[in-house]
């Protein structure tokens, strides 16, 4: 079954451009992962400092490979001081048809 999630975080005031650059570079790497199907980055129209990333991986193994990629740790280390949250807030999603 596909692994689908929404990652959310808010850039601190004045860090939006740096966060956008970081996430743009990271997105290019993630999209090259064999098991990544979707990695779309959005900002909230009413609050451009709020970033939402919609991610879909082929399956749990592909998601675990993503978590263990060598560029993930450095990305998170660079991102953490630039965002308001302690880390990205992850919401795992199931397709509607998965619910009885």
UniProtKB/TrEMBL annotation:
InterPro entries: ABM_dom, AI-2_Isomerase_LsrG, Dimeric_a/b-barrel. Keywords: Monooxygenase, Oxidoreductase. It comes from the Bacteria. GO terms for molecular function: monooxygenase activity. Gene3D superfamilies: 3.30.70.100. Residues 3-92 form the ABM domain. This is Antibiotic biosynthesis monooxygenase.
């Amino acid at each position: 079954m596909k692994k689908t999630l929404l990652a959310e975080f808010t850039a601190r005031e004045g860090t939006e451009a740096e966060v956008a650059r970081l996430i743009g570079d990271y997105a290019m790497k993630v999209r090259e992962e064999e098991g990544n199907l979707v990695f779309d980055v959005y900002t909230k129209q009413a609050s451009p400092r709020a970033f939402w990333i919609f991610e879909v991986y082929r399956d749990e193994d592909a998601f675990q490979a993503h978590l263990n990629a060598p560029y993930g740790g450095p990305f998170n280390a660079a991102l953490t001081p630039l965002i308001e949250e302690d880390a990205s807030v992850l919401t795992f999603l199931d397709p509607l048809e998965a619910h009885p």
